[in-house]
């Protein structure tokens, strides 16, 4: 395998020097076909809008894909054929090496002390469809970890929802249990932890438990509720989780979603909070600035979980991602090219600043 990757890298270097325009064309067509796949059936006008390119260019590329039997076109729009899906899968590794994503993964693995890193092409900030690819990669990674009698805890959020959406239905494992990692957050029902727990459990043919609690309730109420037998059982399952799946947010955005007053949000900013995960707000060095009160996983207990899969993408989330990874070394990070590039820039700048001290 190592020899194959080495040969591929050599071929890419030669092609970049001799026919760089071919590689640019390949990347462009890969992006177009991927966009069709995640939005099928889709019309030409909508495709052009998603990609931010002219309809004339889209018409030309669509004609090419159709001649190559990579897409079908009917009254509902364009769909990717079976052959097209196979081509997309084969192109993934090629595009991965073409864009130098393996080197990015290795840099972050070493410099953030991570167990594993997967970087997908693109930038969520520029193209929301990249989050689907992140979710698909995260779902595939989860499938590789599953064993009988595992407990899987997950938070809510759009990124975690993408993992659940892209998880295929399997029934290969016995006595799996899926639980919410935290109490619910008063926002869209479709991305709340309880909703995602039920959906993932259905796809894994697993059992599940729910945690019908809201965040930011009074400590006295939390203490009373945690002593209820039904909640105690769920809390124990959460503490014994083998896998934790969670998203990462920007501190100020997550504080606003949780209904924090502006004065409190400003206080968090002044204290250096840049990232949020499982109800905790972190500075860039991974220190906890503030944590919300709720039932569910406690920050210190996350370190005891064997597999922690963090999912986040977009250049704008780079600082947030760094902050959470530094709190919890040996994480598994699934992210995108946009975030990875910015993370690497931040770390290199930090190292240069240290060298100049």
UniProtKB/TrEMBL annotation:
Domain CggR N-terminal DNA binding: from-to ranges: 26-95
All copies of domain Sugar-binding, residue ranges: 97-345
Keywords annotated in UniProt: DNA-binding, Transcription, Transcription regulation
Keyword DNA-binding: yes
SUPFAM superfamilies: NagB/RpiA/CoA transferase-like, Winged helix' DNA-binding domain
UniProt signal peptide: none
Keyword Magnesium: no
Transmembrane segments: none
InterPro entries assigned to the protein according to its UniProt record, in alphabetical order: CggR_N (IPR048715), NagB/RpiA_transferase-like (IPR037171), SorC_transcr_regulators (IPR051054), Sugar-bd_dom_put (IPR007324), WH-like_DNA-bd_sf (IPR036388), WH_DNA-bd_sf (IPR036390)
One of the Pfam families matching this protein, by short name: Sugar-bind
Family: Belongs to the SorC transcriptional regulatory family.
PANTHER family reported in the protein's UniProt record: CENTRAL GLYCOLYTIC GENES REGULATOR (PTHR34294:SF5), TRANSCRIPTIONAL REGULATOR-RELATED (PTHR34294)
Name of the featured protein: Sugar-binding transcriptional regulator
Source organism of the structure: Clostridium brassicae
